[in-house]
C-alpha cells in the first residue's frame, strides 16, 4: 500500500518530527529529512482525529508517523528496555505506516498540553492510566485517548503518545526506499 505524505498546510497538523532532530531518545537525528507519511486509511483517521480536536479548540502535534525499518533498527539499538521499542525483525507498526506518536496543543496559543512526561520518556509514568503524573496530565492523556479512540485508533498502553490502526500487521513494513523523493 502506498504511503502518503502529511503536511502542516494540507493536513492541519503541527509537525514536530523528533527523529529528524537530536531531540529524541537517541540524542541524534535518525532521519535525514523531516517527512511524515501514513497509509491512506491511517491518514483518513488522523484527519478525523484532527477534526475532533479542532472542535475542542485543540491541534494535533505529530512527533512521528511512518518510520523506515532502518530507523527502527537505530531505535532498537539505542534503547536498553526493549519493551518500549518494537523488534525490527518483526517489522514493528511504525514501519508499516499505520502508527503515529503525537500530543495536543491549544489551537489559539500553540501551548502544548501537559502530559506528565515528555514524548519518548521510557518510564512507567509514560503509561496510559499512570497515577504517577499530576491530575491535569491524567486528564489531558484521557482527552487525547478519547479523541484518538473516537477517530478509530488503537492505543499502546505503555506510551500515552502512541496510537496505531487496529490489526496493524495486515500492512507490510517498508524500508526507506519506499519513501517518495528519496530516503528519509
TrEMBL record:
The enzyme's E.C. designation: 3.4.13.22
Instruction: Indicate what this protein is called per its UniProt record.
Output: D-alanyl-D-alanine dipeptidase
- Function noted in UniProt: Catalyzes hydrolysis of the D-alanyl-D-alanine dipeptide.
> Which Gene3D superfamilies did the record assign?
3.30.1380.10
Reaction catalysis annotation: D-alanyl-D-alanine + H2O = 2 D-alanine
Q: Which cofactor does it need?
A: Zn(2+)
- A molecular function (GO) term: D-Ala-D-Ala dipeptidase activity
Q: Where does Zn(2+) bind?
A: 94, 101, 162
The record's section on Pfam families has: Peptidase_M15
The Swiss-Prot or TrEMBL record describes its family as follows: Belongs to the peptidase M15D family.
Q: What class of enzyme is it?
A: hydrolase
Q: Where is this site: Transition state stabilizer?
A: 67
Amino acid at each position: 500500500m502506498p504511503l502518503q505524505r502529511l503536511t502542516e498546510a494540507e493536513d492541519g497538523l503541527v509537525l514536530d518530527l523528533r527523529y529528524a532532530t537530536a531531540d529524541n531518545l537517541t540524542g541524534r537525528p535518525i532521519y535525514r529529512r523531516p517527512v511524515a507519511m501514513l497509509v491512506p486509511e491511517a491518514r483518513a483517521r488522523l484527519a478525523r482525529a484532527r477534526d475532533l480536536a479542532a472542535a475542542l479548540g485543540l491541534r494535533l502535534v505529530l512527533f512521528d508517523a511512518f518510520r523506515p525499518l532502518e530507523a527502527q533498527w537505530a531505535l532498537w539499538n539505542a534503547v536498553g528496555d526493549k519493551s518500549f521499542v518494537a523488534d525490527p525483525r518483526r517489522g514493528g507498526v511504525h514501519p508499516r505506516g499505520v502508527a503515529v506518536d503525537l500530543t495536543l496543543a491549544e489551537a489559539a496559543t500553540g501551548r502544548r498540553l501537559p502530559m506528565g512526561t515528555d514524548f519518548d520518556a521510557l518510564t512507567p509514568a509514560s503509561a496510559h492510566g499512570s497515577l504517577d503524573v499530576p491530575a491535569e496530565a491524567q486528564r489531558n492523556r484521557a482527552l487525547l485517548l478519547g479523541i484518538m479512540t473516537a477517530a478509530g485508533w488503537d492505543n499502546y498502553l505503555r506510551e500515552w503518545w502512541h496510537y496505531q490502526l487496529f490489526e496493524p500487521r495486515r500492512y507490510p513494513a517498508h524500508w526507506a526506499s519506499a519513501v517518495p523523493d528519496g530516503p528519509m
